[in-house]
């Protein structure tokens, strides 16, 4: 249950009653350190992990009530962490963060139980708002539509996910050279 001190709606004053454990899984150490500090200041019991194996190990030790998981970890995919958390604690609330956001991975994350999907860099207030949002309230639609470059990139990512992240098969289906596809996949999403 959430309470607001002095009836203020400021996210900085949100406190979680009961289980306020949160697991932050991200391989960007400076980013996860800043985020952990911000969550601690807001009353959360924070644990961090920098890899899929560290994240799943932390979940096995004590499944948290909340989690913030980076989609692309150096050692694997954040979806594996979400799946492990969903099996260990189905009521956990998970937000996915990524610098490589795309519709296909967002859909996969939501199917596995994530409640929201945010693009990096996201600040602590945005993440907390996503974690605490009433599930019956729909998120506001974006003010600016996607550019043509972004739509192309989304389509490539969707096909890549449908091919189980197999670069050669994705390139074949898109009638694209494999190296060209690899360069596109290595870049951040266009705006």
From TrEMBL:
Q: Name one GO molecular function term.
A: phosphorelay response regulator activity
Q: Which NCBIfam families match?
A: ActR_PrrA_rreg (NF033791)
CDD domains xref list: REC_RegA-like
Q: Tell me a GO biological process for this protein.
A: regulation of DNA-templated transcription
Q: What is the lineage of its organism?
A: Bacteria, Pseudomonadati, Pseudomonadota, Alphaproteobacteria, Hyphomicrobiales
* Species this protein is from: Aureimonas ureilytica
Checking Gene3D superfamilies in the record gives: 3.40.50.2300, Homeodomain-like
Report the residues modified as 4-aspartylphosphate: 70
What is the designated name of this protein?
Answer: Chemotaxis protein CheY
Pfam families attached to this UniProt entry: Response_reg (PF00072)
List residues of the Response regulatory domain: 21-135
């Amino acid at each position: 249950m959430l309470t607001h001190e002095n009836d203020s709606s400021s996210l900085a004053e949100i406190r979680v009653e009961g289980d306020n454990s949160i697991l932050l899984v991200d391989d960007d150490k400076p980013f996860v350190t800043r985020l952990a500090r911000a969550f601690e200041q807001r009353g959360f019991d924070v644990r961090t992990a920098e890899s899929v194996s560290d994240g799943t190990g932390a979940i096995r030790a004590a499944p948290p009530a909340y989690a913030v998981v980076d989609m692309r970890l150096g050692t694997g995919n954040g979806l594996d962490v979400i799946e492990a958390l969903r099996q260990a604690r189905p009521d956990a609330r998970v937000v996915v963060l990524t610098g490589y956001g795309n519709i296909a991975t967002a859909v996969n994350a939501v199917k596995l139980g994530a409640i929201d999907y945010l693009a990096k860099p996201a600040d602590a207030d945005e993440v907390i708002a996503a974690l605490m949002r009433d599930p019956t309230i729909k998120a506001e639609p974006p003010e600016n539509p996607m550019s043509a470059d972004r739509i192309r990139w989304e389509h490539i990512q969707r096909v890549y996910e449908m091919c189980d992240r197999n670069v050669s098969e994705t390139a074949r289906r898109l009638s694209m050279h494999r190296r060209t596809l690899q360069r596109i996949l290595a870049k951040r999403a266009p705006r």
